[in-house]
Amino acid sequence: MSRNDFSRLFDQLESFAVGFGPTFRDFQTQATTGYPPHNIVKNTENIFILELAVAGFKKHQITAETKEGILTIRGDKDVDAEDHADAYQYRGIASRSFSKSFRIAEFFEIVDARLEDGILSVTFMKNTPEEAKPKLIAIK
Asked: What is the pTM of this model?
C-alpha cells in the first residue's frame, strides 16, 4: 500500500470519526516508518499484543515509556570497540538506534512487556470502567 493509498484511506475514515483527526495523522505517520517492523495482534476482544522486531538488542538497550496516552519504545545501540564496520563482509541486520511511538486507545493499559527471541511483546488489556459502559435507558 503506497503513501497516497494511506492518505486517501485516512481521509475517508476521518470523515466518519469526529475528533479523531490527530489520531489518524499520527497513525499515518507511523504507518510509513518501517524500522523496526511491528505487528499488532488481537488476542481476545479485550487483549492486544504489540510485537516489535528488535533482533540484536539486549534488554538494557530498550526502554518503554508511556506519557499522555502515547507509548514510546526506544532502542539505543551500544557501539562496542569490536563492532567496527570493517569487520563485516556483509551486514544485513540493522544495528541502528530507534524510537517508535504508538497512541494507546482509551481504557487500554499495559499489563506486560517481554523480550524473547528478538521480539519485544507489549500486552495491552482493555479495562472499561462501569461508568463508561453502555447503559440501557428505560423509556416511559
From this structure: 0.68
